[in-house]
Design a protein that fits this description.
- The chain is mostly helical.
- Helices cover 75% and strands 2% of the residues.
- It has a domain of 220 residues.
- Strands 1-2 form a two-stranded antiparallel ribbon.
- The longest helix is centred in the N-terminal third of the chain and has 27 residues.
Length: 322
């Protein structure tokens, strides 16, 4: 069984990383674009937020600035692909490589740690919840002061931001532009035949996706209290794992509720990781475990088709099941 503290930590990280998974889902599923920019834009979001917060700027403003930096990263990848005609995979790799140096420039060093008691969205939420719960207890005659940990507060911050992002994305993909963006990924030739500028749609999708990834990086930094130049390694694998788990649970890929399932997949992925930790598996094997899990999930349709063929042959011989 997973301990309660580890379960709460998994829920906190799952919500915050779920926003990153939404960004990967937009580019990977809606645009059919394997965008490796996320490996750099996640760190970029954390780096911008870290530099601004340590400089004394408001954490909410710093978080929005991190999102803006993610938008610019997606814009660069889109420019390389649509204007310079560089293949999607290579354009993401080029941007990711360039972002490594940019992230070092932004942070000024390889990592940044927040001082104890630094003002972040997590500490603000912890203070707000503490005051709120203390007042509630006061109504019942209790004079005790309630304190809320930043770990517990990060869950509420994750819920707030996930809800905002899901609402905005659902409203956007219900608009004409959102439908055109999805049509570009589904059938680019048909979208062009309808007079759609597919290059602009690709750039827009990459900007939105990397904005979500950078937002996630900024929030994870504030939850963990530090940013590191290598914290984005494996981001694409974690995001794909969350997307695959979410799609397995919620198979209707054409519904807007699939966005929520991606966040749920991120939470379940973190719970799986916590369970694996409880089993005593070496943390160094997590990447291998995740890669095997994704490979198995992606192979499910093939295995299902072969299983159906085997069943038909077993019951019907060489004749069709029909």
């Amino acid at each position: 069984m997973i301990s309660l503290p580890m379960l709460m930590q998994s829920l906190s990280l799952g919500m915050l990383w779920g926003i990153m998974a939404l960004g990967i889902f937009i580019t990977f599923r809606f645009l059919n674009f394997a965008d490796l920019t996320v490996e750099g834009s996640f760190v970029l979001g954390a780096a911008v937020a870290a530099r601004l917060i340590t400089a004394g700027y408001d954490p909410l403003v710093s978080t929005l600035a991190a999102m803006t930096a993610g938008v610019l990263a997606g814009l660069v990848t889109g420019f390389l692909h649509t204007v310079m005609k560089i293949p999607p995979l290579l354009s993401g790799i080029l941007t990711m490589t360039g972002l490594y140096s940019i992230n070092l420039r932004v942070m000024g060093r390889a990592n940044i740690s927040l001082t104890w008691g630094a003002d972040t969205l997590m500490t603000r939420m912890a203070g707000f919840l503490g005051r709120f719960m203390t007042r509630i207890h006061g109504w019942f005659g209790s004079e005790s002061v309630i304190t809320v940990t930043t770990r517990d507060a990060s869950i509420f911050v994750g819920v707030v931001f996930v809800t905002i992002v899901l609402v905005i994305l659902r409203l956007f993909f219900n608009t004409e532009i959102g439908c055109v963006l999805r049509a570009t990924g589904e059938n680019e030739a048909m979208a062009k035949a309808q007079g759609v500028n597919t290059d602009r749609m690709k750039i827009l999708g990459l900007m939105i996706g990397n904005a979500c990834v950078a937002l996630s990086g900024a929030l994870v930094f504030q939850q963990q209290q530090f940013a590191d130049i290598g914290m984005g390694i494996g981001t694409i694998v974690i995001g794909l794992a969350s997307v695959i788990i979410g799609e397995v649970i919620f198979s209707d890929k054409n519904s807007h509720w699939v966005l929520f399932s991606v966040v749920l997949g991120s939470v379940l992925y973190r719970i799986i990781i916590a369970f694996v930790l409880q089993l005593g598996i070496n943390p160094n094997d997590f990447r291998l475990f995740t890669a095997i899990m994704i490979a198995m999930a992606l192979s499910l349709p093939t295995f299902r088709a072969k299983l159906n063929i085997h069943i038909r042959k077993l019951f019907w011989g060489n004749k069709d099941a029909a």
